[in-house]
Amino acid sequence: MASTTTQLHPSDVDSYDFIIVGGGTAGCVIASRLSEYLPNKKVLLIEAGPSDFMDDRVLLLKDWLSLLGGELDYDYGTTEQPMGNSYIRHSRAKVLGGCSSHNTLISFRPFEYDCKRWETQGCTGWSFQTFTRVLDNLRNTIQPVHERHRNQLCLDWVEGCSKALGIPIIHDFNHEIKTKGALKPCVGFFSVSYNPDDGRRSSASVAYIHPILRGEEKRPNLTVLTNTWVDKVTVEGDKVTGISLTLQSGEKRTLHHKAETILCAGAVDTPRLMLLSGLGPRKQLSDLGIPVVKDIPGVGENLLDHPESIIIWELNRPVPPNQTTMDSDAGIFLRREIPNAAGGDGEIADMMMHCYQIPFCLNTSRLGYDTPIDAFCMTPNIPRPRSRGRLYLTSSNPLTKPALDFRYFTDPAGYDAATIVAGLRAAREVAKQEPFASWLKREVAPGPKLQTDEELSEYGRRVAHTVYHPAGTTKMGDVERDGMAVVDAQLRVRGLSGLRIADAGVFPEMPTINPMLTVLGVGERAAEILAGAWGWRGLEKERL
Ligand SMILES: Cc1cc2nc3c(=O)[nH]c(=O)nc-3n(C[C@H](O)[C@H](O)[C@H](O)COP(=O)(O)OP(=O)(O)OC[C@H]3O[C@@H](n4cnc5c(N)ncnc54)[C@H](O)[C@@H]3O)c2cc1C
């Protein structure tokens, strides 16, 4: 059996062709594929957190909530949000598999419309066709929530949504997206990356790294170094030479790659590492006394997220026990705006809601609302939000967490806030509809007293939360024409050789859906691009 390691001998520092920083969602895919496609190249995957192999705290999907805020969570705050909620904590996983090791694994393919928006921003080759091909090739086990995990409450909610809003029940969201390019208003059980027989995750690490650790797949050219923090990207002139890191033991090493370094530390930690390495906006770095190695204005800008709000009911009987994947088994897509309001988006979904069969009262209790024992929540979110934020450093001290200013609900036309209001209203319609209605005892929050758009907007924004989808902070685009693009369509960092980025940070815009599959797709495509650049001819015919 192969294993991960926490040690790196000084004689090995210059022996790797590829150095992958971050063993998260994209990083695991790239490490596995690159070492498969290029068996003669040595690949080093470096993860700050521990291995998740055989760790049931991480692997049992149903326990995801207990990981948030714990020792495997970086737990980032937000700056003050005058239009939203300043108390949101952003969980980011510090463990092999990254956020795919502590998320809810709801799995959606991106829409054709999302891919087109990327392509018009200069992401040449990142078409719906490309995503369809690479996502067809994913190793994760993805399927609609199993029958045994569909409890009567959730079944009745799905039926209630369909009847109340006149929308079809969809049996496989991803089949719909793959064949029709998008989702129109509809409701159904999610597709989830998990094993219904044992309730374990099919995360990026489980699907791509564990078969190697179990010895089922031989990959002598791959080393997985855990509990190791990458401190700096090292640069000589315009050439990135590698990185420096701190091992679990506290020892430091400087590594030189033979081929390239790939940053996969996620939409928060990739820009953080770049900024601390002097790769970012000149003024920000100079003001903090960080020597400017390369002025890259877009690093940390274009911070995207899917904000959501919440409406909570008390149930008049308990949630049926032990029949759920992870307490959020189904969701609904709606259309708020007139057709083509966003340009070429027809009548595809522009509003979404998850349901929660637990009291998700984190933000409502702070405002004085009570927490019922038996609760059902709907969480309207904004699939294509228009507010944009930024991530920046406030200190040159690497231990200081970066500032995350999402600027929630600040888009001038008020599109984001209006979407939340419409979502809360749609949720109330569903609550009146049998067979779901007879489960409900009372609306706890916002409560029946709040009725006007202004009241619902104020409430909706103050209790707003995140769907935990930060993205966009090192966006991909046409680096010749867009000064804020950080990487080009080949994921190469502006003005530097030897450095690419592949994680949620490269999203130029937010896909309409939960982004994990899009990140996995970025990982698959990045591995093809990298391997292709270093001699692999595997996809010559198929390359799009
Ligand atoms: C609680 C939660 C629930 C979510 N639910 C869903 C869902 O149901 N469906 C969905 O589609 N999306 C979901 N998401 C979002 C999705 O999981 C993320 O968008 C995606 O996993 C991000 O992948 P990534 O590769 O960009 O980064 P990550 O997966 O975060 O990987 C980054 C990795 O880099 C490591 N790292 C960071 N800095 C360093 C460093 N300096 N040195 C070494 N290693 C470093 C980290 O430890 C981490 O392992 C959820 C996210 C969260 C947090």
UniProtKB/TrEMBL annotation:
Origin superkingdom: Eukaryota
Positions that bind FAD: 95, 230
Gene Ontology molecular function: flavin adenine dinucleotide binding; oxidoreductase activity, acting on CH-OH group of donors
Needed co-factor(s): FAD
Signal peptide per UniProt: none
Keyword field: FAD, Flavoprotein
PROSITE patterns, alphabetized: GMC_OXRED_2
Glucose-methanol-choline oxidoreductase N-terminal domain segment(s): 266-280
Homology family: Belongs to the GMC oxidoreductase family.
Protein name (database record): GMC oxidoreductase
Species this chain originates from: Lepidopterella palustris CBS 459.81
Lineage: Eukaryota, Fungi, Dikarya, Ascomycota, Pezizomycotina
